[in-house]
Specification:
alpha+beta, Helix Hairpins, two-stranded antiparallel sheet, 6 strands, PFD3, Prefoldin
């Protein structure tokens, strides 16, 4: 951040500094000794801080979009794993041969391409999950359910934190907009007073 004087010294849980509300502009600019350049530089400083908050907000919104895509994917994968676990347990307890021992499913190859697969319910001991970066790992169904449940919980918490940060940044941006307007109006009044005195 550009200058400590535009921050209260407090931060939120993720370290984003809280914008100071300028109550008295005279605490930042001495009206008796300031020049037009001093006011212009201070307005630039306020603008720069506001742009930093906006940049952070945009990054948080991108993060939120990614999380909004991930969460449904994790839920779908978790639901499938739970379904497979249920099929596995029902096959172990029934002892009778089921008429349909295979499950036909559609799975996504990429954003627009799906394919069909047939899963043999007698052989549901493990699942293979994409972890990203072209990495696929095989997990026993129970471990996959545990891992996906934890990942869903962490991703949900990240989403809550991101939403909280966006609200916090919006509040700081509003504070900086008000500060900028107040300094600009103060400067207009200062120039009028100078003209009247001259």
């Amino acid at each position: 951040m550009a200058s400590d004087r535009l921050s209260t010294g407090k931060t939120n849980a993720r370290g984003i500094p809280q914008a100071v509300f300028i109550k008295k502009i005279e605490e930042f600019i001495n009206p008796k000794t300031c020049t037009d350049d001093d006011v212009s530089n201070f307005l630039k400083e306020l603008q720069m801080r506001m742009e930093q908050y906006r940049f952070m907000e945009e990054n948080k919104r991108t993060t939120l979009d990614n999380l909004n895509t991930k969460i449904p994917d994790i839920k779908k994968t978790l639901d499938i794993c739970k379904y497979l676990k249920l099929k596995q347990e029902s096959g172990e307890t029934d002892g009778e041969e089921e008429e349909d021992e295979n499950i036909e499913v559609n799975y996504q190859l990429n954003d627009t391409v799906y394919s069909k697969a047939v899963i043999d319910t007698k052989d549901i001991g493990s699942v293979r999950l994409w972890l990203g970066a072209n990495i696929m790992v095989e997990y026993p169904v129970d471990e996959a359910i545990q891992m996906l449940t934890e990942r869903l919980k962490v991703t949900g918490k990240n989403k809550d934190n991101t939403l909280e940060d966006i609200d916090y940044l919006r509040s700081n941006i509003t504070t900086m907009e008000v500060n900028t307007a107040r300094v600009y109006n103060w400067d207009v009044q200062r120039r009028r007073t100078q003209k009247a005195d001259a």
